[in-house]
């Protein structure tokens, strides 16, 4: 249902090229323009906006930079990114063809939610949120408003119970509005934890 991976080739390559474009001296076209173009392609891929020929286009561009770049920094960056392209081709294909990041690293591939069975209603996630995207109050199970969430993940660091999680293609069942802590069932019929939603009756 939800998971947080530790590595994504696309995200890693994007970070490398982001540093390269910012540090470029701008003296040669490949370093000045090529690194920016490579970064923009990687960014679009990570955001689920890739074109089908982006892998080939990016490979050709990086080969040009690594072979003909005017500075050691851009050449090393392009060579490193080429390695990430060739060694993790399946990962790139999944991002480009299916618009998905298996490890839920790229922001476009996941949504953020609060596991209702773990939330204690302390409000620390809402205090940390810069987008005002978390609804809730004292002793209430908090809820993320997905349309307002920028996925800065500050709420993850703030939550003492690890209740803030990522969800990929399979969306968990969560309350639409804040409800009292303790009013959510754990599991139902052998299903995954946190997918069963119900209000407790008195006496349970």
Overview of the molecule:
The structure is a single chain. By secondary structure, this protein is mainly α. The protein folds into 2 domains: 9-98, NADH-ubiquinone oxidoreductase 51kDa subunit, iron-sulphur binding domain (de novo design (two linked rop proteins), Up-down Bundle), CATH 1.20.1440; 111-180, Alpha-Beta Plaits (2-Layer Sandwich). Helix content is 41%, strand content 8%. It contains 7 helices and 6 strands, in the order αααααβαβββαββ.
Protein traits:
204 residues, mainly alpha, de novo design (two linked rop proteins), Alpha-Beta Plaits, two-stranded antiparallel sheet, 7 helices, 41% helix
Distance between the termini: 28 Å
Would you identify the CATH H-level superfamily of the largest domain? NADH-ubiquinone oxidoreductase 51kDa subunit, iron-sulphur binding domain
Name the structural class: mainly alpha
Rg, Cα atoms, Å: 21 Å
Strand fraction band?
5-15%
Q: Which residues sit in consecutive blocks of at least 5 with pLDDT less than 50?
A: 187-204
Major sheet: size, sense and barrel closure? 2 strands, antiparallel
Shape: elongated
Would you count the extended β strands for me?
6
- CATH topology grouping of the largest domain: de novo design (two linked rop proteins)
The CATH architecture of the largest domain: Up-down Bundle
Q: Helical element count?
A: 7
Q: Please give the order of strands in the largest beta sheet.
A: 1-5
| Estimated helix fraction | 40-55%
CATH top level of the largest domain is: Mainly Alpha
